Structure formats: C-alpha cells, structure tokens
Amino acid sequence: xxxxxxxxxxxxxxxxxxxxxxxxxxxxxxxxxxxxxxxxxxxxxxxxxxxxxxxxxxxxxxxxxxxxxxxxxxxxxxxxxxxxxxxxxxxxxxxxxxxxxxxxxxxxxxxxxxxxxxxxxxxxxxxxxxxxxxxxxxxxxxxxxxxxxxxxxxxxxxxxxxxxxxxxxxxxxxxxxxxxxxxxxxxxxxxxxxxxxxxxxxxxxxxxxxxxxxxxxxxxxxxxxxxxxxxxxxxxxxxxxxxxxxxxxxxxxxxxxxxxxxxxxxxxxxxxxxxxxxxxxxxxxxxxxxxxxxxxxxxxxxxxxxxxxxx
Length: 311
Hints:
The chain is an alpha/beta fold. Helix content is 48%, strand content 12%. It is elongated.
C-alpha cells in the first residue's frame, strides 16, 4: 500500500509538471500498466482506483491539449500574418489513434468541478473508477444543449434580451445550428438543429445565432465551422455567444474573422426552460459579430459591455 501511494504521489507531481503530449501519454500508460498489475494481483479496489485516477487525469490533460492542437472540421486557423511557421502535429506523429483522441477530448469536456465530484462519488461508493464511466458522465452533460455547467442538474438557455438584440442587429435569425426544441422557443430561428440533427452536418443559411455547446471538441468544431461558412459566404451575418476564451485557438480564429466583439460585463445569467434565472457559468462571456452592420452591433450591444471593432 505504501509503495502504491508513493507511485500515486510521484505520478501526480510528474503530471503537474508535464508540458507536452509525449510526457503526458507516458504517465498515462504507466498508470494503466500499474492499474492492471494491481488488479491481477488481487489487491484492494482503493489501490486500483489510485492508479486509475492518475490515468484519467492524464487523459483529460491530453484531451485539453489535443483540442487545441489538432484541427477539427471547419478548417484550421489562418496562418499568422507575420513570418512565423506554425506546425500542427498529426495524431500519427503523436502516437495517438483517432479513437483515443476523441475519447480523451470527451473526457476533458467534463468541467473540473464535476470531474472532482465524480472521483469522490466513485470512491465513496467503493466502485471501480474507469474511463468509460467518465465518458458516460461527459455524454450526459453534453446532451444538455446551450449549457454552461456549474451543476450537472441544470439546463441554462440564453436570456431573451440577448436574442432580441441580436435580431435587431441582423434583421432576422434564420439558422440556429446548436439548439433544442426548448431553446428555440426563445430564439425563434426559422431553421434550427438539435443534438440529434447534428448541425455540424447541415447547411446553414442567412443570419445565424450560435450558442455552441460549452465543451470540447464541440465548441471548437462549431465555432471554426461558422468562420468557414462566413468566409465562404454560405451565411451573411452571425452572432456567437461563447465563453471569453481568448487563449484558445478557436477563439483567436473567430477574432481574426469577426467584425466586432462585445466583452460582456459580469457573467450572463442564463435561464431555465421557464425563463427563470438559474445561475451563471464559471467564465465570462462574449458575443462576436460577423457581418457588415458593426455600427448597429455597437448601438445595441454596448449596453452589455465594451465593444471592440476588428481592424
């Protein structure tokens, strides 16, 4: 037991210091080998779960990095205007299969608070901690459209005031590609796609309202796809409500293509299906505007926060 605890503490320190996929994958593989060895020896479930916890933490960390490094549908970000060559590694070069990449990114989509709660609950119940169990949790969370999670029990939808203002700016909302039947009672888009429809696979038209799922890889895929469709003139205008994630590739990609952005004061108070305020997400939000009416965007959205124009 003492030896296992030493491995556990050492692995946690190594994982905290790891800076690239190779290091993280090595920690993950060592943890999985240790977990299997402990299980074969018939040791306690507690010892198995210690190794499994390191494995999960490593997979989540790898998933976060992969979500930023590996290009998704909708195209990769444009090359910077200065003479810097950006090399995006391929999965094969990282020694990672597409299935592993998809699974680890799904695990990484679970918010930190829910992940720690999941670990604690499994330990309290004296059940086996598994990657499959974490992915099941991720799937349950992602099935709640327009959600920014503080708690796994609430579904939060965009407040009516933001929808009304977006409609004034654009003139109409023709497509909402990441919606639900309940959400569209507020948005009232002419065409909307639910999680079952998978809006990433559909044609978007006209003026778009997008509040993407707040989890990877879906937020990246929806946002990069919107940029692609706007540049190719498949859509005319768009308003995107998304976390203020200025450090991410997908957000930088949108900033390079949008006409203006509103950095919302405070945090958006999302509502439940009855229009009652249910809480606020863990991060601040922005609305990015794509189109020719940036002055109109400033006129209506400046009430919510600072507006910056693209140059």
